């Protein structure tokens, strides 16, 4: 993704020191894992699937920030496990988020679940 210095979050976080909030980087990784699940048809066995959070221990390291002067960010996922358990499919991955050629987030064991939509 190209970094747009006009993005809404820069003037809000932090005052006088604009950076992309770390939570948005983590959310981008979660959405990428969800996109992978959709692309691979994981969860197609459910009539009306939905994504859900799964309680798990996640570890991460932050080594830098995305600031308005950066040109782009990118991420990669390494899906480690896909398992069916207790009426849901659970995907576990490791991920990295990069600012240009520098890895600034390293996340271990991020998890997304897919289950039937509750009525």
Q: What are the main properties of this structure?
A:
Thiol Ester Dehydrase, Chain A, 5-stranded antiparallel β-sheet, 119 residues, alpha+beta
In brief:
It contains one helix and five strands, in the order αβββββ. It is of the alpha+beta class and 119 residues long. It is elongated.
Describe this structure in words.
The chain is an alpha+beta fold. It has 1 helix and 5 strands. Strands 1, 2, 3, 4 and 5 form a 5-stranded antiparallel beta sheet that branches.
Low-confidence stretches: none
Rough outline: elongated
State mean pLDDT (0 to 100 scale): 96
- Percent of residues in β-strands: 35-45%
* CATH top level label: Alpha Beta
Number of helices: 1
CATH fold title: Thiol Ester Dehydrase, Chain A
Class computed from helices, strands and strand pairing: alpha+beta
CATH homologous superfamily identity: Hotdog Thioesterase
Secondary-structure arrangement, i.e. CATH architecture: Roll
Order of helices and strands: HEEEEE
- Distance linking N and C termini: 37 Å
Strand runs, count: 5
SSE order and pairing:
Blueprint: H1 22-40, E1 49-52, E2 59-62, E3 73-85, E4 88-99, E5 102-116
Antiparallel strand pairs: 1-5, 2-5, 3-4, 4-5
């Amino acid at each position: 993704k190209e970094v747009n210095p006009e993005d809404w979050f820069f003037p809000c976080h932090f005052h006088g020191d604009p950076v992309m909030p770390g939570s948005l980087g983590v959310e981008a990784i979660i959405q990428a894992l969800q996109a992978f699940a959709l692309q691979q048809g994981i969860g197609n066995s459910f009539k009306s699937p939905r994504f859900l959070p799964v309680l798990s221990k996640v570890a991460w390291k932050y080594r830098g920030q995305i600031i308005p002067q950066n040109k782009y960010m990118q991420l990669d996922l390494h899906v480690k496990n896909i398992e069916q358990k207790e009426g849901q499919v659970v995907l576990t991955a490791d991920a990295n988020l990069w600012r240009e050629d520098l890895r600034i987030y390293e996340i271990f064991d991020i998890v997304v679940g897919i289950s039937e939509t509750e009525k």
